[in-house]
Amino acid sequence: MSSHNARADSLSLLLFTLRSGKLMAINLLKVSEIIPCPPLTKMPESHPHVKGIAVLRGASLSVIDLSRAIGEQPLEDPNGGCLIVTDVSRSKQGLHVQAVSKIIHCLSTDIRPPPYGAGGSRSFITGVTRVDDVLVQVLDIEKVIHGIAPSKIIEEPDAVTMEEAELLANARILVVDDSQVALQQSVITLRNLGLQCHTARSAKEAIDRLLELQGTKEQINLVVSDIEMSEMDGYAFTRTLRETPDFKHLYVLLHTSLNSAMNSEKARLSGANAVLTKFSSPDLTKCLIEAARTVAAQGY
């Protein structure tokens, strides 16, 4: 195993198909179960991409017509197929797909950013990889869900004390996320706190930005990074920072759409200061205040 791969994190992807038969994938950690499509109750006021509500062990579950949501052809049998039940960003939803193919294990470095300008459903893809020489597209599930049920970001200008506002004013923040939607959500929360920040869409771009700002008055002292990113994920990014003399003291908050309890040990081992599940403005605010307090105490 090369040293490059030894640094990479392994992940499991669930492969599935829609009508076209093209292979798509979702991070297995975001999947709680796979079930045959149950009877659905139509909701008259619901979003056009929501097929209906299923009842699963006494709890209701919104079922998303994934084909419609990403602009693909509808399934041949609208009542067939199966549901991938996802647990993402603090809520569960069912994705209606044609069929589930298999689970594969790969490295985060095997997932490449999607080619630009690949049309239609391209905007719902966060990365691509190859399986047995077939191209597999990795779905941006957060973007799909956000298009149907946007996270409510409440403006809360009074939520912080004077002392907290002063601490935050000294934080020079870089937000790293390969999902445009998730990046926007974080930036809006920061803006509501009266903060400007720098942004990057990949770990590589983030490292370039950190180097560029190093030694200037905008030198970053706090990084908020997604975990599930192609090429270099949040864990590998954090380890890289910890091994770089200029960046080893940076405060790193890992921000993930996965349940953070599942990730806290891995985050700690990579050297992150804290981990938080997306997306809650009040929780992000609280974590940022905590981070700014630590940064101030360390004098960075």
UniProtKB/TrEMBL annotation:
CheW-like domain residues: 10-150
Superkingdom as given in the UniProt entry: Bacteria
Gene3D superfamilies: 3.40.50.2300, CheA-289, Domain 4, SH3 Domains
Residue span, Response regulatory domain: 172-293
Modified residues (4-aspartylphosphate): D226
InterPro entries noted in UniProt: Chemotax_regulator_CheV, CheW-like_dom_sf, CheW-lke_dom, CheY-like_superfamily, Sig_transdc_resp-reg_receiver
Signal peptide start and end residues: none
Record's keyword terms, sorted: Phosphoprotein
BP-aspect Gene Ontology terms: chemotaxis; phosphorelay signal transduction system
A Pfam family it matches: Response_reg
Protein name: Chemotaxis protein CheV
